[in-house]
Write a structure and sequence with these properties.
There is one protein chain. The chain has about 325 residues and is of the alpha/beta class. The longest helix is centred in the N-terminal third of the chain and has 26 residues. The chain contains 11 helices and 13 strands. The strands form 4 sheets. A 6-stranded mixed β-sheet has the order 4-3-5-12-6-13, with helices on both faces. The protein has a 3-stranded antiparallel β-sheet with strand order 10-7-11. Strand 1 and strand 2 form a beta hairpin.
Length: about 325
């Protein structure tokens, strides 16, 4: 089958329609008229020779073929957007120094890819990259020990910092696979906590208190990977986020992700900078990080955990 008639605009319209289920909302997102959105979808479906959307339902829903094609369409769009961001990053060649902090949630694939892009774009720049927990990254940017930092949004705004939101990262339940999978694990297995000195740990504890949910104090783990290994071994259950779950890919055959059994909540991952930048460098790097997150984390996570659709999403 050829690809004649499959256009970039058609893929963008399909992606937006899959997220909204509404022609009107898709038109607002894409800047097209409602008739133009409908025409783009008809052209795309004709080019592929199959229906991607059940047009009779409100809100519209994807057909099985549409769900399969959405995964591939997202991959294509993510790579094109990342390529566009990499071209934009070429404008950073005038920088002489840059110190960047990255949340340790990205230390497996995303941070090395970003470092490669920056190194290629800033051949004459003295570049320093630091990986650390969120609270350490934002503190270092506020103290001007780092120029920029990617971290979870703190509970209270930090004076003197500008924020560029990147991704909404909802909290999820992670349990061992097997007979105690899902909510059943909460009744039979202990709660494996993050270290409450870390922002993710204190955020989870604050939400549990607000929910009136109390669990015995047995385990408090500082290292994310160690926490996921304990879950995989059946030692207990944990609350993490899709970013954390995707970091533990080697354990996915032994751990299972589920929606929370109580009120949902989420964290925001952002790029933070000082308020004294006169150039668009923070915005350019934020855009590139956002595209990397979409290509390497969000897209694969939604393909594996489709119930996160609309909840896990990039923001820039």
């Amino acid at each position: 089958m050829g690809l004649k008639g499959v256009t970039l605009r058609g893929l963008e319209v399909f992606e937006a329609l899959a997220a909204t289920g509404s022609v009107a909302e898709t038109a607002a997102r894409t800047g097209l008229s409602a008739p133009a959105v409908s025409q783009q979808m008809r052209n795309l479906e004709a080019a592929l020779g199959t229906a991607l959307v059940d047009h009779a339902r409100r809100p519209m829903q994807l057909t099985p073929a549409g769900r399969h094609f959405l995964t591939r369409a997202r991959e294509v769009l993510a790579q094109l957007r990342l390529a566009r961001s990499e071209l934009t990053m070429m404008d950073l060649s005038g920088l002489t120094t840059l110190a960047l902090g990255m949340i340790d949630d990205f230390d497996n694939d995303l941070t090395p890819r970003l470092a490669t892009i920056l190194a290629e774009s800033m051949a004459r720049c003295r570049f320093r990259l630091v990986t650390a927990p969120s609270h350490e990254v934002t503190a270092a940017v506020a103290a001007r020990r780092l120029d920029l930092g990617v971290a979870a949004r703190p509970a209270a705004p930090v004076e003197g910092l500008e924020e560029h939101p990147l991704v909404r990262d909802p909290f999820i339940l992670v349990t061992p696979r097997g007979p105690l999978e899902g909510a059943a694990a909460l009744q039979r297995l202990p709660f494996l906590r993050y270290d409450r000195a870390q922002l993710i740990g204190s955020t989870i504890e604050a939400h549990l208190r607000a929910e009136g949910a109390e669990f015995p104090e047995r385990f408090e783990i500082g290292a994310h990977q160690a926490l996921m290994v304990l879950v995989a071994r059946g030692a207990g259950w944990a609350i993490t986020t899709p970013l954390g779950y995707m970091r533990a890919a080697r354990l996915h055959d032994r751990i299972a992700a589920h929606p929370l059994p109580f009120a949902p909540f989420a964290r925001t991952i952002s790029l933070f900078s000082g308020a004294d930048w006169a150039s668009p460098v923070p915005q350019d790097i934020a855009r590139t990080v956002c595209e990397l997150v979409q290509a390497q984390v969000v897209g694969p996570a939604l393909a594996q955990l489709p119930w996160l659709e609309g909840d896990l999403r990039t923001l820039a």
